[in-house]
Amino acid sequence: MDGISSLNANTAGAAFRLGAAEQANLDRIVNEVNNTLQDGRRPQQELGRDDFLRLLIAQLSHQDPMNPMEDREFIAQMAQFSTLEQMTQMSADFSRLTAMLSGSEASQALGRNVEIFDGDRVVQGVVRAVTRGADPQVMVNGAYFNWTQVQKVFDD
After folding, report:
1. Are strands 143-146 and 150-154 parallel, antiparallel or unpaired?
2. 8 A C-beta contact, residue 139 and residue 121
């Protein structure tokens, strides 16, 4: 920190450039802090809406006051954010719809004969119970199976 303290004392109130040694020292300190902060974290492969908002706020906070972001750039970024938000909501809605359809489909098999592929064996029997939820299960011959394992449903 001695290099940074002396740098601040020598350049108070003036614009300055870091020398090679000072830049290397600053980079080392930044890397140490980043490594400490990232301990146990894993980087994400996708950006979400919170990440987008943080980037936009950082961009607005650090823009050049003599050359601010133009209105159309800001509007374009807000339109991108709005689109991202709508896509996120649609994805959640589709997930709920898929779960509902799967549960409804499983419920309609109640009392019917089904054929289930369970690994290497084929199980046939009447569906006696159905569980609800994102991954519905059917009870056939006293055992529960995932609805996705049902290959055939027979009409009585």
Report:
1. unpaired
2. no
